[in-house]
Amino acid sequence: MDAILADLAAEQDDLDSVLVGLTDEQWDTVTPSEPWTIRDQVSHLAFFEEQAALAAHDADGFGASLATIFDQGLDAYMATGLDRGRAMSPEEVLDWWRRVRRATVDALRRHHPDDRLPWYGPPMRAASSAVARLMETWAHGQDVLDALDMVRGPTDRLFRVAELGVKTFRFGFENRGLETPDRKVRVALRGPGGTVRVWNDDCTDSVTGPVEEFCLVVAHRRNVADTHLVIEGAIARRWMEVAQVFAGPPGPGRPPAGSGRR
To answer: Which of 20, 144, 165, 244 is deepest in the core (most CB within 10 A)?
Structure first.
């Protein structure tokens, strides 16, 4: 658990190092997840860090907050964090995110990796909750960097995001009401230091390539057509069209770069 939380904190610190140097005007730059701005991206992260901390230390309290989804509707609930952030200064949004992300790490540190915590849907293992927070930080951080035309180097932390992407194989299909294939896909990914991780090694369909590009696809930050991933087999190709590592309704994904949008 300590290793996962160290990776989560490192991912948060990397994004923080970008945000701390922004002007107030840059905080309102529209990101590729239109119409969300950088302010909205960080507000979204802060709101769900708050919820993750609550789920980790007060299951009943989290259950009560979850009831507001049924009262308000999903769209209104999702807007809660955005509205709070839009009423703050950029400095206040950054302080909010810093405070609640520390609370999440502290709350998760008190748990065994296999402890079950409530979340939106089935309960999650504490270790999985930490990895999900890492994935969200990295994915929304990618939107921030894209909005600023900045590039970051990949890290081996992405293998945690990739594993979550592999584990959500069924979800990508089920979330769209599609029949789940009866065979999985071999995934072989290369990290920035040359390390290679392989999942489902006995499967014939396969996805091979850089770990960063796989993560960008399953997190809907790049269209697979804009990557160097090598995809073999009909099941693998269909999976890369519907893969979704984050919870919630099916996302629209990103169109290919040639369509005129990022």
So the answer is: 165
pTM summary value: 0.95
pLDDT in tens, 86-95: 999 999 999 9
Task: Locate the domains of the chain by residue range.
Answer: 2-147, 158-259
| Encoded tokens for 151 | 């590039």
The topology (CATH level 3) of 158-259 is Nonspecific Lipid-transfer Protein; Chain A (3.30.1050)
Report the candidate in 186, 173, 176, 187 with the shortest Cα–Cα distance to residue 249.
176
Q: Read off the pLDDT of residues 207-231 as tens digits, 9 standing for 90 and up.
A: 999 999 999 999 999 999 999 999 9
Q: Alpha-carbon distance 125 to 224, whole Å?
A: 30
**Whole-angstrom Cα distance, residue 103 to residue 228?**
38
Domains 2-147 and 158-259 share a fold: no
